[in-house]
């Protein structure tokens, strides 16, 4: 059995976001699959064209999911099929959410859904370095305290395991209608984003 002490230390640092990700969904219910798929395809093209007109580059657009399924209906009801296409937009214009949203709503009206809005940090490498240093220092302080309580002195580090995470700011999915489009001048102000590193460190006895 290894001798020594294992502890967990955590470090958290904050950074200013520089990326906005918006996930739009286009949905349609129709009596048959072909009609649902065709309508969603046409309306997705309309949304993409509207976003491109707002200055979104092709490289900033991407499909995140496509679904087609039969909806549950009460026995005796006519069959219905739902098709959906989810489009992810990534931009560095953190203030452009309202304009993008209004353009998409104007393009397809009630067929549009907003699945999420998220601010993020593109390069977290320096934040991870800082969080890692804080985590290790906390682990070492804990280990030294425990060693002192047990009547030992700390020796060398024999093992380290790392986990890290990031909690971006997001908004939940919701349905939208043309009559309830957001003001294009809406002011979205993201909070600082947190980067957290957790280290499990094993110290041998001196």
The secondary-structure element order is EEHEEHEHEEEE
What is the molecular shape? elongated
Mean pLDDT: 88
The level of helicity is 25-40%
Give the biggest sheet.
Answer: 6 strands, antiparallel
Structural class: alpha+beta
Give the full name of the CATH homologous superfamily of the domain at 18-121.
Protein of unknown function (DUF541), domain 2
How far apart are the termini? 16 Å
From the alpha-carbon coordinates, what is the Rg to the nearest angstrom? 25 Å
The proportion of residues in beta strands is 35-45%
CATH architecture of the domain at 18-121: 2-Layer Sandwich
Query: Treating each run of at least 4 consecutive H or I residues as one helix, how many helices?
Result: 3
Instruction: Please report the total strand number as a whole number.
Output: 9
The CATH topology label of the domain at 18-121 is Alpha-Beta Plaits
Low-confidence stretches at least 5 residues in length (pLDDT < 50)?
A: 171-185
CATH class of the domain at 18-121: Alpha Beta
Pfam families: SIMPL (PF04402)
Organism: Kribbella pratensis
Protein name: DUF541 domain-containing protein
InterPro entries: 26kDa_periplasmic_antigen, SIMPL/DUF541
């Amino acid at each position: 059995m290894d001798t020594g002490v294992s502890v967990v230390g955590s470090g958290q640092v904050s950074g200013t976001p520089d990326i906005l990700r918006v996930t739009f969904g286009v949905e349609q219910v129709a009596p048959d699959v072909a009609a649902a798929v065709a309508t969603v395809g046409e309306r997705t093209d309309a949304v993409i064209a509207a976003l491109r007109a707002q200055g979104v580059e092709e490289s900033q657009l991407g499909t995140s999911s496509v679904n087609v399924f039969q909806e549950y209906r009460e026995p005796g009801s006519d069959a219905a099929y739902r098709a959906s296409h989810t489009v992810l937009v990534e931009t560095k214009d953190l203030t452009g959410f309202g304009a993008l949203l209004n353009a998409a709503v104007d393009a397809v009206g009630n067929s549009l859904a907003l699945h999420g809005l998220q601010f993020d940090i593109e390069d977290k490498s320096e934040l991870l370095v800082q969080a890692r240093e804080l985590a290790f220092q906390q682990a070492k302080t804990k280990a030294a305290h425990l060693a002192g309580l047990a009547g030992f002195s700390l020796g060398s580090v024999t093992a380290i395991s790392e986990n890290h995470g990031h909690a971006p700011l997001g908004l939940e999915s919701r349905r939208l209608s043309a009559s309830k489009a957001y003001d294009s001048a809406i002011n979205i102000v993201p909070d600082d984003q947190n980067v957290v590193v957790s280290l499990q460190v094993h110290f041998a006895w001196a």
